[in-house]
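We now fix the convention by which a protein and its fold are recorded. These numbers are not coordinates but entries in a learned vocabulary of local backbone shapes. A record is reproduced here so that you can trace the correspondence yourselves:
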Amino acid sequence: MTTPSWHADPLTWGTGPRIFEAFLEPTCPYSVRAFNKFDELLSQAGEDKITVKIRLQSQPWHMYSGVLVRCIIAASTLEGGKETAKKIMAVIATHREEFEFERHAGGPNMDVTPNQIIERLEGYSGVKLKEAFAIPDLDREIKWHCKYARQNGIHVSPTFMIDGLVQPDMSSGDEVGVWVKKALGS
């Protein structure tokens, strides 16, 4: 067996003992709302007290979900690793409607190809994704995210887990302070 020539940097920030995992679909408006709170969560909780892990939760009703998840993972293999992936996620969040279909089944993106989606991401981010997107066995990492979500019974995005336990009462609409209290128990 040969060692892969690439490495997907884990989408993990902070070094604390409490593990806060968020299962996100990149174009889901609720996942975007959650994603936009993670820097504040780390700041309020303290990077030495909490570790935030993003788990990508591709969902077929978000029609370009698979392409965008692959783009994020591809970005994590590039220089900057997880920070490059985070930059791609931020671009998707900022321009969410340009990567989604109207009512999940129509609109201008009906005529857009995966290559055009990648080019759009490259244009907004300045990150060259095409070569990394084409890594032949990149799906190994994508499948890991999918299997991990399935083994934990994750169906919707965002879903949150603290120390391996799903938190059904947590929402992207919660104030960050509520997340901190829930995660740290204070």
Notes: DSSP finds eight helices and five strands in the chain. Strands lie at 12-13, 18-24, 50-56, 159-162, 165-166.
